[in-house]
Amino acid sequence: MVTIDHLYYPHIIDALFAYSGPASLAPMAKTCRAWRQRCLDRFYHISDLRILKAPNIRLATLSDLHGTRVSLSSRELALLAGCRVLDITSYHVTMRVWYLHNLQTVRYHQGLVDYPPLRAGQLVFKNELPPFRYRNTVAERLVIYFTGRIEQLAWYNRVLPYVRQLVFIFEDNDYDEEDCPSTESNNDGQDDSNLDHSMPALRAIKSIIEEALNQPTAVVLVGTERWSVETFDALQLDIDRVYEHYDEHLHILRPLTLATLGTYRKFVGEREWSVMTDWTKMLCP
Q1: How many helices (DSSP H) and strands (DSSP E) are in the chain?
Q2: What is the pTM of this model?
Q3: How many C-alpha atoms does 44 have within 13 Å on its Cβ side?
C-alpha cells in the first residue's frame, strides 16, 4: 500500500476541503485536529438553516460559504459545530439553535425584523430594530448597522431586551470626506432636509438610547463624527461631542461612548467588523 504525505501536495488538499460535500467532510473531520478544524471552517458562516425533524430522521438544509444550498444528514450535523455566524434572510426558516453549539452572531437581513430573536452572544440588524416584546436577555451585545440616510425607524410601543451593550454603527457609503460637517447650527426645527437623518428617525434613536441607559445598558455610537452639528444636536444627549481615538479605552463599558468608525473598527478587529458591516457575501473565518 502506498501512502501520500499530504504536506507535499497542499494544493490538492486545499481543493479537497474547498469542494468536498458534507458526506466527505464528516469522515475527514475525524482524521486529526487540523483537518477537523478545516472541515468545520466550511460552516463558519451559514444562512437560513432549517432542521427537518421526523421519526428516526434528522435533516438540515442551509446555504454555505459558496452560497449553495447544502443538505446535512443526521451523521453530518456535527459539522454545524463550526458555525459562528448565522444569517437570517428568509421567513421560511425553522431551526433549533441547540445544533449550533458555538454560534456567536445572528444577523437579520433588512425586512426580517418580525422574525423571533434567537439567543446568541451577538445579534446584528441592518437599518432597523425588531419589535421585541419581552425584556428577556437574548444576547450580550446588540448591534444596529445603518447605511445611508435614515428616513424611518419604527420604535413606538416597543421594548429593549436586557443586553450588556448596544452599538449603533452609522456608515454612509456615499459620504464624501472632503465635505466637512457644518460648525454652526442653523436648524429651525421645521425642515430636516439639512440633517443627515430625518427627525423622526433621530427621535427614535434618542428613545432607544434613553431606554438603554435606564436599564442600564452601555451604549456606543459609532460614526457620528461624520454628522453635522445640527444632526448631532437633534439627539439632545446632553454630552460633549468628544470621540474615543484610542481603541484600548473602549474596553471600559461606560453609559454612553462616542467612537469614530476607524477607532471602533480597530477595537473589534477586521473579522468582527466584517460580521457587523459586510452584508454582501458569505464570510470566511
Answers
A1: 7, 10
A2: 0.83
A3: 17
